[in-house]
Amino acid sequence: MTVLFHTRRLLMNPFTESTVARPLAEGVCSRFNGAATAMRRRKRRALLGLTLGVLTGLALPAGVHALDVNTATQEQLLGVRGIGPKTAKIIIEERSRAGRYDSLEDLSDRVKGIGPKKAAALQAAGLTAGASLSQPKNPSTPKTRPK
Question: Polar residues composition bias: which ranges (predicted)?
Fold first, then answer.
C-alpha cells in the first residue's frame, strides 16, 4: 500500500523549483485586509491610552494620593507601600491608645519598627499625619488677601 503526500512542501524539489518567497496576490492575506488594519490600530490606541494613564498616575505628586494616618483604616494602611498587616495593626492600636499622631516623626517615635528612614519612605508613598494638603508649609506666616 502506497501513501501519497499531497502537500506542496514535501513534493518541492529545491533544485528544480525556486525557494525564494513570492509576493501574495492582493486580498489573499488577512494581515493587509482593511478590517484587520483597523483592529490593530484600535488596539494600539488602547494600549497607548493605558500606558499614558499609568505613567500619569506615577508622575503625579504623592500628595494627590495622600492618606491621613489618623483617619485611615487597617485596610487603607495595608494599601500603602511599606506597611504590612502587623505594622498597620500596631499603628491603629497606638492611635487608639495615645491619640492622634502630630506628625510622621511622632509616628516614628511611637510605633516600633518605623524609624526616620521608613517614615520618609512612607511619606513618599503618600502617608500624611494630620496636615491637610491646602495648609501652607510654614503656618507662622499669615496669608494676606490682595486688595
Answer: 136-147
Three-state SS at 73? coil
Residue-level pLDDT, tens digit, the chain, 147 residues: 555 544 555 567 778 877 787 776 665 565 556 677 777 888 888 887 777 777 766 665 544 568 899 999 999 999 888 899 999 999 999 999 999 999 999 999 999 889 999 999 999 888 998 754 434 444 454 555 455
Say if pTM beats, i.e. exceeds, 0.70: no
User: Contact at 8 Å (CB) between 82 and 118?
Assistant: yes
d(CA 116, CA 111): 11
Contact (CB, 8 A) for 129 and 103: yes
Coil, strand or helix at 147: coil
